[in-house]
Specification:
Blueprint (H helix, E strand, L loop, with lengths): L1 E2 L10 H11 L10 H18 L6 E5 L2 H12 L3 E6 L2 H13 L4 E4 L17 E7 L1 E2 L4 E2 L2 H10 L4 E5 L16 E5 L11 E5 L1 H10 L8 H8 L10 H13 L3 H21 L5 E2 L11 E5 L2 H13 L2 E2 L1 E2 L8 E5 L6 H14 L3
């Protein structure tokens, strides 16, 4: 079965061998305070910096999910309120989740074909963070590095936090364009779900130390103190950490991965723009189209039929999500999926819509 679902998505095929290696090497039962674990974590942090081009002065942490990162950001870095800029379901969920913890937080929506109008974004007093979803998985849009730079230059005091769940380890993110980045690993990392990476700027840690929140098991200052010795706050997903280290050793630098994905995204968009029939791209503005998640729109019954027929050909298409749940399907463009699998996918669509 070819899996184009945008998360959990296809894992790298090498993971199968690494799972056996983890068992044989006793990784599944090592103490997370042991020297062996610390050495593994030191290697992993170094590989993440090298392969993903993360600045040396940025801090790395590991949590269970991107959703947990929402919680950490709200509890440890937001004494008053945060502003959430969103155009889809996941950005809106982040806003709703935060408002349960910080009721004064607020959101500003924009259209799926719109660029963020940075100069006219209303930022209230005492706004601690501005929160952006870099790749909105629900609709296949993205916020560019140029837009993040504009936000950074326009608003000096609030921290800038970026949900990069569907782009980290796939695109060459410019980490200096924001203070906080986070992502779960079941997408571009090509790993099993149950782990996320949190990347924080020096300014973020200064804020965390000044607030000194220690009321929660995942308070950022506590995670920081433990990571000084390459340890996690509590027992982590040791298996996923091991798998990440093994995979990163084999993968090319992110610049090369990015070039491959961007080229493939260009070819996929060109194909679907020219394809006859009633399937069309949801996002019409090329400037805001995601490089890692494509969203196709069609009448409800046609979407269901296409997904059903695709399954009979051994192809899993991603369901629509949120407001587009019934009339769209999604296609992941993640590094673990091979070019030959996209050839099979496009041949399937050629057969459904002959010229």
């Amino acid at each position: 079965m070819l899996n184009f679902y945008p998360g959990p998505s296809k894992v790298y095929p090498q993971v199968r061998d690494y799972l056996t290696m983890a068992y044989d090497e006793g990784i599944l039962s090592i103490p997370h305070r042991s020297e062996r674990f610390v050495l593994m974590m030191r290697d992993l942090v170094g590989l993440l910096r090298k392969k993903l081009n993360i600045p040396q002065d940025y801090y790395l942490f590991f949590t269970s999910s991107a959703t947990e990162c929402w919680e950490i950001i709200s509890q440890s870095l937001t004494p008053h309120k945060s502003l959430h800029l969103y155009n889809g379901a996941f950005g809106e969920k982040w806003c709703q989740y935060t408002k349960r913890l910080r009721p004064d937080s607020y959101g500003q929506s924009f259209g799926v074909n719109d660029l963020l109008d940075v100069p006219n974004i209303p930022v209230e007093d005492d706004t601690d963070l501005i929160c952006v979803t870099q790749t909105e998985t629900s609709n296949g849009t993205q916020v560019s590095m140029e837009t993040l730079l504009k936000l950074q230059n326009q608003f000096k005091d609030p921290l800038l936090a970026v949900d990069a769940t569907s782009s980290m380890a796939g695109l060459n993110l410019k980490f200096i364009r924001a203070d906080i980045w986070f992502a779960s690993v079941q997408k571009c990392f090509g790993l099993p779900a149950g782990l996320s990476v949190l990347v924080c700027s020096p300014r973020t840690l200064q804020r965390a130390k000044a607030l000194n929140d220690r009321k929660h098991y995942n308070s950022l200052v506590f995670l920081y103190e433990k990571m000084l010795n390459y340890q996690t706050g509590h027992t982590p997903n040791v298996l996923d950490l091991y798998l990440m280290r093994q995979m990163l050793e084999q993968l090319p630098l992110i610049k090369q991965v990015d070039q491959h994905l961007v080229k493939r995204a260009h070819d996929l968009y060109a194909f679907f723009e020219e394809m006859p029939g009633d399937v069309r791209l949801l996002v019409e503005n090329p400037e805001v189209r995601s490089q890692t998640v494509l969203t196709l729109q069609a009448p409800d019954k046609k979407v269901q039929e296409l997904k059903r027929v695709a399954l009979t050909h051994g192809i899993t298409l991603g369901n629509g999500y949120g407001a587009w749940a019934k009339n769209t399907f999604r296609i992941a463009n993640f590094p673990a999926i091979e070019d030959s699998e996209y050839d099979t996918l496009l041949n399937f669509f050629r057969a459904q819509y002959p010229a």
